From TrEMBL:
It comes from the Bacteria. Keywords: Membrane, Transmembrane, Transmembrane helix. The keyword Transmembrane applies. It comes from Cytobacillus oceanisediminis. This is Uncharacterized protein. The chain crosses the membrane at residues 32-52, 64-85, 97-118. InterPro entries: Uncharacterised_YnzE.
Amino acid sequence: MINVLWGFLLWISATVFFRLFGQMFLIPGNVLLLLATFSLTIPLITLVTYPYYYARRIPISKRLISSVQIALPGMILDIFSIIYFKKVFPNLHIDSLPILASWLLWAYSLILISGFPIKIKSN
């Protein structure tokens, strides 16, 4: 249940962020800014998942299910934020909708990937 709550908090944080500042980051045609936005999502998701796993002492064997529980609330709620795009994100131009949807898929994919074990080969 805590994982689901963490996922909800991440979803509400991202939604509020893009509601207030999305027009500065999701600019159609500004390829460099979009690349930077998508690239910076990697360390951001790393910062909100791996320390969470360590703080909650989630064993590696349970991280995949935890990542699903973290991602799922936002994935479900974003169905509605995309359907009601103009009401939820009034500062974003309608041309930003595909970019926002792509970013959401990217972010949720990264959350899910964080649940897979990382094998480090030792000598």
